[in-house]
Amino acid sequence: MTAHILPGLVDSHCHLDFPEFEGKLGEVRAEMQANGVTHALCISVELPKFPKVLALAEAHDNFFASVGVHPDHEAESVESARLVELARNPKVVAIGETGLDYHRLGGDLEWQRERFRTHIRAARECGKPLVIHTRDAAEDTLRIMREEKAGEVGGVMHCFTETQEVADGALALGFHISFSGIVTFKNAAQLKEVARNVPLDRILVETDSPYLAPVPHRGQTNRPGLVRHVAEEIARLRSVSLDEVAQATSANFFRVFLK
Fold it and tell me: Which of 90, 121, 125, 170 has its CA 20 to 30 A from that of 148?
């Protein structure tokens, strides 16, 4: 009897340098293999810890890295030239995680908008796509993307939780929409509808590990191997096979990040 070969999936957004994975990388990689997850993009959120993100990518052929500063990191300034310099490494395939987050921080957030612009300018200079985070800031996010011509490099709206209108705005700029474990949650009716409507050739899947573990693992530490559940839910919502979702999302990932 021939063993069933699992379809190849890519976790397009994870944080394997975080403390939750200390000493557990062997287990993480074994679980990826068991679930047909062939590659993962390790995401940078602050430059002082970027070397650890890059080291993961350099140590494993199927890991890649991004470079950037998460919008929550208020104290960290960054220059476009520095991002461009770090992005020269061939294992760095994207600029980010960047964007706007008005949920956790208040007051005058012009510094956040300026730093987002800096990331977009760096991405355009080095020709690498963007990994964009937006929370309670969709209008400003799309406005800045348009003003700074983010569409010239494209990229992904990561861990998407916004409306169809916001998705359409990002798609119009050439961006892809990435769904996380949130799409498996029972109360995510609006997001499930977006997952039905976004063209399959513009969808990515992710875990955002160690956060947002999908059903039936909700509440646990998320891992790249669990991205399979995200793909299964998208397949269910769209009434297509898991193989079709896996093939499309993996092809999308390589087209966006390794063109």
Answer: 90
Contacts 24+ apart (CB under 8 A), 183-192: 183/214, 183/230, 183/233, 183/234, 183/237, 184/214, 184/215, 184/218, 184/229, 184/230, 184/233, 185/215, 185/218, 186/215, 190/163, 191/160, 191/161, 192/233, 192/237
- The Cα–Cα gap between 36 and 238 comes to 21
Specify the number of domains making up the chain: 1
CB 150 within 8 A of CB 129: no
For residue range 116-153, what is the model confidence (pLDDT) as tens digits? Answer: 999 999 999 999 999 999 999 999 999 999 999 999 99
What pLDDT sits at residue 81?
97
Q: How many residues does the chain have?
A: 259
Domain coverage including residue 125: 9-257
- Look at residue 117 and tell me if it is in a domain: yes
Distance of CA 96 to the CA centre of its chain: 9
| DSSP 8-state class, residue 138 | H
**Cα of 107 vs its chain's centroid, Å:** 27
Six-digit token pair at 168?
A: 């359409």
Helices 138-147 and 164-172 meet at what angle, rounded to 10? 10
Residue 230 vs residues 36, 122, 195, 234: alpha-carbon distances, Å: 13, 31, 11, 6
Asked whether 241 and 223 are in contact (CB, 8 A), the reply is no
* pLDDT band (50, 70, 90) for residue 6: low
**What is the domain-level CATH number for residue 175?**
3.20.20.140
Return the bridge partners of 135, or none.
Answer: 101
Could you tell me whether strands 9-14 and 37-42 are parallel, antiparallel, or unpaired per DSSP bridges?
A: parallel
Tell me the pLDDT tens digit for each residue of 145-173.
999 999 999 999 999 999 999 999 999 99
